[in-house]
Amino acid sequence: MSVDALFRPHTIGTLAVPNRVVMAPLTRARADVDHVPTPLQGEYYAQRADAGLIVAEATAVDPLGMGWHRAPGIWTDEMVLAWKGVTDRVHEVGGRIYCQLWHMGRLVLPDYLGGELPLGPSAVAGEGETMAPPPDDYTGGFLPMKPYVVPRAMTQADIDRVVASYGAAAANALAAGFDGVEVHGANGYVIDQFLQSRTNLRTDAYGGSIENRVRLLDEVVGAVVAQVDPGRVGLRISPTSERKGMGDVDPAALTEAVGALAQRHGLAYLHLIEPIASGFVDKPDYPVMKHLRATFAGTVVQNGSFDAQTAADHIARGEVDAVSFGRPYIANPDLVTRFREGRPLATPDFDYAYVGEEKGYTDYPTWASSAG
Ligand SMILES: Cc1cc2nc3c(=O)[nH]c(=O)nc-3n(C[C@H](O)[C@H](O)[C@H](O)COP(=O)(O)O)c2cc1C
Q: Which one of 48, 54, 264, 331 is most buried, counting C-beta atoms within 10 A?
């Protein structure tokens, strides 16, 4: 079966892309310990620049939303300047790169906040554990794990700060040379925490009805499109994922509401994590893709356990406009070329997914260089 549908050009909002293969955002923790991006990240993304669009790794909008050792931020001038070095590298080789704007909300460990509690919609802890900062005698390798804590329920001032941080970060992303931004509304981070009924127990204007639960997202998107042309703004969601203690009473209705919100703001694309096969995220019992299409007329990018064939089939049938690939991009910098030429994919070494330097990051060869 042909995979030609992957290589049809498309326009995402106002961005022309040469193919339908999107690089999904991947946190790889190669910024410095102060969350400032490094030249190594520029090399990594430039290697992957034949993607139709690169959505760069989750990038914190505010230190209060940052709980990941060596993940990047975009709230200082120094960070903006360093990101400019990264986007320049990508543009030099003809690529397109968006910044994924991120606030972790309740999933930040107090260790990253000088002992303060993280912020969440309600005093409900995330399920599971996450990487703590390195101990003083750390010499590399895996980081210690700690359980998530019960967050402090956000006040109106906390909410206003999150919204303002997103707006400022969007402006910073443009200053840093990104071609656009993606609002991270997925994977159990703060926006998702407000969206989903299991984590949002608020009784004020931000909780209860779906209309209220989408309010934070509405304000965040409003702040972002005040800075960036909505034709260059995307939104990522994972309404059927229950990882980290997420869950919603009616993901289909929530999805329709988010689609309508995106439509109202004129967003370029929605990026839905809804696996077609079990993998990193479980395959949902009740897929919500059709609910997104019901209310949103823009580009839809789907993600989750696709390969070239399943992605091309979904695009050819018109179910989605593009497909993003996460794990396949770790070990295959030339993923688009491999798809085009029908080459086998290299297997990533997950020991280096979230820690390290060049090894397991920028040292994966292209097919052409490994075969030749
Ligand atoms: C190492 C790693 C880091 C990730 N970091 C992010 C991230 O920063 N932002 C995000 O939205 N998703 C992140 N994800 C999820 C991926 O974008 C993607 O949804 C997931 O890998 C499933 O897609 P795949 O089957 O193509 O790998 C990450 C996944 C992995 C494996």
A: 54
